[in-house]
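The protein record filed here:
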Amino acid sequence: MTANIALSFDAAAAAHSDKTILVGPQRSYTWRELDLKAGAVAAGLQSDGIAPGQRLAICFEDPLDTIIGVFGGLKAGCVITPFNARLKAEERDQVLSLLDPTMVLDSIPDGDEEFPAQIVNSEDPAIILFTSGSTGVPKGAVLSHRSVTVGLDMWCESSLAIEKNDIVLSVLPLAHSYGLFGTVMAPLMVGAQSVVLPRFGVEDVLSAIKKHKATIFCGVATMFRRLLDSGEVDRKALSSLRFATSGAAPCPWELAEDWRVATDVRIVRGYGMSELFRPVCYSPVDSAETPQSIGHAAKGVSLKIVDEDGNSLEGEQTGELWIKSDSCMTEYLDRPEDTAAVMEDGWFKTGDLATISLEGLVSIVGRKKEVILRGGYTVAAGEVETVLNAHPDVSEAAVISVPDRDLGEEICAFVVLKSEAHCSEQEIIDFCKSQMAAYKYPRIVSFVPDLPKGATGKVDKAKLKA
C-alpha cells in the first residue's frame, strides 16, 4: 500500500491552485506557488542524492520557510523533523545527535519546480517529532505516513470541523504536533487559509485577527489569559472568529468561561500529544460540555481506563488512560524499551490518570509522568535537573511544577549547594537560562539544606510540593 501524505497535499494544490492559503507577515503563497516552492526543495534534495526514507532536519527561523521545507521534504519521501527555532545550540545539537539526519535543510533554493510526491509505503516513517523525556533526554516520536493521514483527518473532522472558507491563525511552534498539524497541515489540506505569525504577541494577534478576518484562533491557555489581561479584547475585535481552540496544556474551565463572557467566542478544548495527535476533544459542533472534562474520543479512537496491573476498570473509576488509534506513533526513535513501556497490543499508555463518564467524556485527574506544562510547552523535570546539577556550586537539585495563573504551571527548583559555596538564586537562574530554551529554565529557585528522600533514596517530590 502506498500513501505518501504529500500525495494529499498534491491533490489539495490541484483543487485549490489559485487560492492564497499561506500568509506570513511579509509574504504569502497560493497553493500553486507553495507547491512549486516545495517542489524546488524536493528536486534539490534529489539532486543532492537524498533518497526516499532518509532523514531530513528542517531548521529555519522563518515559519514559512519551515513549511516549505516540510512539504518539500515530504514530497521527496524524506523522514522530516522540523526544529524549534527557540532551541539553544546545545539543545539543537543534542537532538541532531539523536536524529542522525542525512542532511540539515537550512536554506530554500531559488526558483520553482514541478515535483510530484514520491511513492513510499504507508507504514514508512514520515515525520519524527521530539518530545521531552522524563529523564531529560528528548524522545523522537516516529509517525508513519498512515498515522499522519489518520491524525490529520482527526484534526480536520473531529477537532476543527474545518471548512475551506476558514482562516486559521497560527502562532504555535511548528516543531510541535499542535502547531504543525492543527494550524497548518489540516487547514491547507482542505483548502482553508493559514495565517502564520512567528511569535505570540497580544497586539500582533489582535491585529492579525482583524486584518485577515480569522475564523479560528488556535492557542494555548497562557495566550488566552494574556489576551484577556491586556484589556484590549472585546466582542467587536474578535467578531470574525467562529471559535478558538486550546491545546498543549490544560485550559481551565474558569478561563474558558471568562473568555466566552468577554468575547462571545467559545474555546474548544481537547487533549493530545506528539505520539497520538488529538485523540480526545470536543468538537466545534458539540452543543454541550462539562467543566471538568476535556472531551470525548475522536472519530476512530478507542479509550479505556486501567488499574496498576493493566486491568480494565468499569464505571467512572480512576485509573490510567489508555488510547488505541491508527494515528498512534510507530515507536520512539532507537528506544525500544521506552516504546515497549508505553505500547501494548495496539494501546498507548498515556501516563495520565483519568475517568470516563457514562456519556464518554474524559476527565484528567492527575499525571503519572514527571513533566511540567508551562505556557503550552512540555518541559521534562529531569532535563532541568541535569542542567542544575552541572553548576559548579550545586550538590543536587530537584524540580517540580507550581501553579501559575498565567502559564498554568511554573518551573520551581530546589537546590542544595555544596559546602562553602556562595551562590544567589539569580545566578542559578542565569546559568540555566544560558543553557536552555527560554521556556525551560526555572524562574523560581529555593535553596534547601537537603532534599527529602524515600527509603530507596529517590527524592520525595510530594513533600517538596507540600
User: Anything to note?
Assistant: The domain at 5-354 is CATH 3.40.50.12780 (Rossmann fold). The longest helix spans residues 31-47. The chain has a mean pLDDT of 91. The longest strand covers residues 394-404.
